[in-house]
Amino acid sequence: MWQVGAARVNITYFEPEIGLLGWGSSRHVAHTVESQLYARGFCFQVEGSSPHFWIEADICFISVALRQEVFLRLKSHFPELAEANLMLTANHTHAAPGGFSHHLLYHINTPGFHAGVFERYASGMVEAALQAYAARKPAKVVFSQAEFPPEIPLAFNRAIEAFKKNPMAWTDRPELAVDRRAYQLSIFPSGDLINWFGTHTTTIQEDTRCISSDHKGYAAELCEEGTVAAFAQTTAGDVTPNHFRFPGIRVHRGPTPNPFENRRIVGRYQAEMAQSLLKARGEEMPPILRSWWRWVDFSAVEVEEPYTRGKGRGRTGAGALGPAFIGGTAEGGGIPSEWVRIISILARLRGLIEPEVHGTKPLLIESVSKRIFGTTRWDTLPLPAADPAVKYLQWIARQRGKYVPLPLTPQVLPVQIWQIGAVGIVALPFEPTTMAGKLIQQRLEPLLSPSGIRHIIIQGYSNGYAGYLTTYWEYQYQRYEGGHTHFGKYTLAAVEKVLVQLLKGEGEAAVPPSYISIEQAKKILFTYELARAIR
After folding, report:
1. How many domains does the chain have?
2. Do residues 90 and 62 lie in contact, with contact meaning Cβ atoms separated by under 8 Å?
C-alpha cells in the first residue's frame, strides 16, 4: 500500500530591483510580484521503504548548493535519509530571483550570491517536505498520459534547423518536433497530482520586470482547490511557447502579443490536460519504490561505442560555453547574430578551440580556468562598461580570484533515477533537447523494463544545473543550445553511459562537491551586499 502526502509552501522573496535568473541580463530585475512562487513537496512511501521526497520549486533551476542545503537540513529530521531518496526539480520560470548558486556565472546578474533568496528557497523546500511527510495517508497512485493535438499552440521546437540535423529527425514542422505528451501521477483520493510537460517557462519575458511563476505556476493555481498540483518539466531544452512574431515586438511571443495573457493561455492548456487525466484515471501503480543516485564528474568521462553512435572513442572535458550562448534565442536575450559570428571567428584565430572535446564550439567562457575569451583579466576585455554585470566582472577580476573560489559553472553533478510502480523518472541537471531525451529513453528501456518500468520520464532542471544537453548532431550546428552544452560534443554520450553504469552498479562515483554553508558563502563569494557596496 502506498502512503503519500503533499504540501505547498510559499517561497516568494522580493525586494525592489532584485535580479531575476533566466535571461542572463543585468537589466532583468523585479519591480513587483505578479504571482507568488511556491515549493510543492510530495512524500512517497511503501511498506519497508524509507520516505522518498519529490519537491518542485517555482524557480529557474536547482543549483548544486541548494540541493546540498536541502538534503542536509532534511537529514537532520530523517537521519536514515539517503541522497537517492530526495529529488529536487524546478518549473524553470525565468522570472524568479537568482543568487542561489555558488558558481559565479549563475549569480553575476542578481547581482551576487543572495543569502536571503537562498534561505527562503531552502527553508521553503524543506518545510514542503516536512508537511508532505506529516500529511501521508493510504493512497492509490495512478499514471496516465495523453498528447496535446498539434494545433494547441503551447510547444514549438525553437531550434528546428538543429533538430533536423539528427539522423532520426521525424519532421521539419516545429510544432511536431517536440514531445507533445503530458505525463501524470495522480494521487487518490486526495486529488493531488504531478504533471510533466516540456516547454520553456518563458511567457513572462525579460522586459516584464516582475516576479512570476509563469505558465506552469498558473496551471497549478487553476488546479489547486484544496489539493497540491505540481507542473514540472521534461525535455524542454529546445521547446518554447513563444513561436509568433508581432509588429513592433523584437522577440517572439505566443500565442498573443501580451505576455501575461500568454501565461494564462499556456497555463490553462496544461491545467485542462491535468484535470482531464485526473478524471480519466489510468494505470494504477503497484507499490514499488526504488531509487538510484550518483555524483559524476562530467568534465572527465571517457566514452565509446555504442554511446557515441558510430563516432568511436572520445571524452568530455572541462565545462566551456561558446559564442552561440551569448547569442540567445528568438524569444529573448543575447547579442546580434552578426556579433556572434565575429566573436566566433576571432576566438578561432586566437586558438580558443579544442576539437577533440569541444568540436565546432569555440571556447568563449572556460569554467575551470576561468578564462573569458582567453584571459582571466576580465577587466581588459573590450566590454560595455555601462552594463552592471560587466562592471562587477571587471571589479572581481581586479581582486585576483578572491571572490571566485569555484569554477564558473559546476563540473561535478548528480544523476538520479526513481521507480514509482511502472514509472521511471530520470532526473538530470541539464536542459535536455527533445531528441536527447528520446535517445536516453531508448538507451534505458531495455535496462528498466525487467524491473517493470514501462514509462520513462526524462526530468530536466533537477538536483543541479550546468546548461543544455544536445545530441552530437545538434551540437555541431552550434546555435544557442549547442553553445550552452558545457562538456563538449560527447556530453550526451557521457550522460547515457553514466546512467547505464548507475543501473548496472558499475563505475565509480565522483567525490561530491564540498558543502559551503550560507555563512561561509557570504565570506568567500561575490555577494549581493558586496555588489551594493561597489555599485
Report:
1. 1
2. yes
